[in-house]
Every structure is written in structure tokens, then in C-alpha cells.
Amino acid sequence: MSGLEVRREGAAAWLTLNRPEALNALDAATKDALVAALREAADDADVRAVALTGGGRAFCVGQDLRELEGAYREGRTPDFADELERHYAPICRLLAEMPKPTVAVLNGVAAGAGVSLALACDLRLASTAARFRLAFAGIALVPDAGSTWNLPRVVGLSRALEIALLGDWVEADQALQFGLVNRVWPAEELERHAAETVAALAAGPTLAFARTKALLRDHLGTDLADALAGEAKAQAAAGQSSDHLEGVTAFLEKRPPRFRGA
Ligand code: T3D
Fold first, then answer.
1. Average pLDDT in the 133-142 region?
2. pLDDT score of 244 more than 90
3. Whose CA is nearest to atom 2 of ligand 1?
4. What's the 65 CA to ligand 1 centre distance in angstroms?
């Protein structure tokens, strides 16, 4: 049985990692389910935003180390490259590249690949109970699941090295200061604020959001000329959308726009 629950809230898909007895550690069944649920959400045009959160007191503590230890005890040495290719790479790519906003709703502790999952999302909304530790060094591994790419882009190289090498806990308030998370609310208010934020994203101009996230991510690695060309191409397409016309009409009629994501 997988430790993932999937539900729809209007046009948003909510994915909840739910193995609270293991702080939502990622076993094979849960990773399989997460890849499948993210693929489905990415392909479903009726889903216009995706939220990833955890049940219980944790967001996610990364790889299930009990499962790993079980394999070692049976004399099997896991092929980490194969495992990363099979689960963590598609999860990371889907969260970053699907054509709709993805949001990590950080209800509690995040460690190891749990931090990597949060970093792969477009936005991170946290409760004061959230805390972060990269944790890979504790088991003599390198950070993976996209975190060596995402972390320095999110917090800068100096902070990334500090978080990876010193291994201190980053508490919610410090995470906000580092830019590791976008918002922090008191624990009891996270659910309400996160639901409002995700619903607002799901009601937004989905095609423009898809192009916006792709442009911002792609243009970190391009020069200005390529960025300007990329913007022109994307804007030409966005300008053809019915949401664009609705946005202009709503502005002139002095009312909020009703975007359909088309
Ligand atoms: O496959 C690959 O390609 C390799 C990839 C690896 C990616 C990674 O994610 S490596 C990093 C893995 N994660 C960690 O190293 C974090 C391990 N956990 C902890 O350090 C601590 O649990 C926490 C500091 C996060 C929380 O501590 P605390 O005291 O609040 O809770 P606890 O008592 O340690 O944990 C509660 C239960 O969750 C406990 O189970 P028990 O003893 O009550 O039956 C504990 O064993 C379990 N748990 C916590 N983390 C994991 C876990 N079970 C399996 N895997 C875990 N990662």
C-alpha cells in the first residue's frame, strides 16, 4: 500500500504524503504513487495547480532508511543511480516542469529528499513548525533529487554550502530569511492560508503561469538576448489566449477577471 493520498479541491490537486509513523519517509510504493499522481496531475487540463504536503507532524524525511537497511540485510546493494532515475528524477522534473504552479505546503519537518521535493516545487509555504535539514551527509551521501541544482538557485551558493556541509537545522523563521520558503504562518493557520493561496493559483491564468515558470527557470541559464527572444515567443502565444482577452476586458469593466486557464 502506498503512503500517498490524492484529492481534488476545485481545480487544485492535493497530494498528501501519509506515512506519519515514519514521518512520511519515501518507500518504493509511495514513490511509485507520487510519480503516477504527478504525471496524472500534469496531464489533466482540469487540474490548474498542485499542492504537495505531509500528514501528521512531518512534511517528509526523505528516503525510507528502514527499507534501505532491509535491502542491505538481505545482501542487496541498491543501485542509487538506477533508483534516482526511476523515482526521484521524474518526481523532481514533474514538479518543476509541469505546466501549472506547484506548491510545497510544509507542515513540519523536512529532511533529505524531503527538502529536495520542496525545492523542486515553484513555491514553498511553511508553518512555524517546519524545519529543514539536508541530512544526506549524516548517512555519507551527496544531496540528490535535484537539490544540488535547486538549492543554490533558491538560496545562493554560500547558504547552500552552509546548509549542505554544516548540517544545522534551518528553522522556519531562518528559512524565510534565507528565501528557502516564501511564506510562514503560525502552525494552526497554515491549512487555511495554504488552501487560499493554492486556490488562487488554480483560478489564475494557467497558460501564462506555465510559460512564466518555464521562462524564469530556463532563463537562469541563458543570456539576455536569448531571454528577450524567449519572452517574445511566449508573449506572442499568451497574447492569443482567451484569458488574456478576459483580463483586459475585466480591467476595463472594473471587475475581477474570471480566468479559465485557456
Ligand atoms: O535511494 C536513494 O537514491 C538514496 C537517496 C537518499 C535520499 C535521502 O533522503 S537521504 C536522507 C534520509 N533522511 C534522513 O537521514 C532523516 C532521518 N530522520 C531523522 O534524522 C529524524 O527522524 C528526524 C530528525 C527527521 C526527526 O527526529 P524525531 O526525534 O522527531 O523523530 P524520530 O523518533 O527520529 O522518528 C520517528 C519515526 O520515524 C521513527 O520510527 P520508530 O522508531 O518510532 O519506529 C523513525 O525511525 C522514523 N523515521 C524517521 N526518518 C526516517 C524514518 N523511517 C525511515 N526512514 C527515514 N528517513
1. 96
2. yes
3. 80
4. 7
pLDDT band at 1 (very low <50, low <70, confident <90, very high): confident
- pLDDT digit string, tens, across residues 196-232: 999 999 999 999 999 999 999 999 999 999 999 999 9
Atom of ligand 1 nearest to the CA of 139: 15
Longest CA–CA span in the chain (Å) reads 69
pLDDT in tens, 71-111: 899 998 889 999 999 999 999 999 999 999 999 999 999 99
Of 30, 65, 85, 136, best ligand 1 pocket probe by most atoms within 8 Å of the beta carbon: 65
* Ligand 1 atom nearest to 116, measured from its CA: 9
Closest residue CA from atom 42 of ligand 1: 22
Q: Which atom of ligand 1 is nearest to the CA of 64?
A: 55
Check if 30 has its Cβ closer than 6 Å to any atom of ligand 1. Answer: no
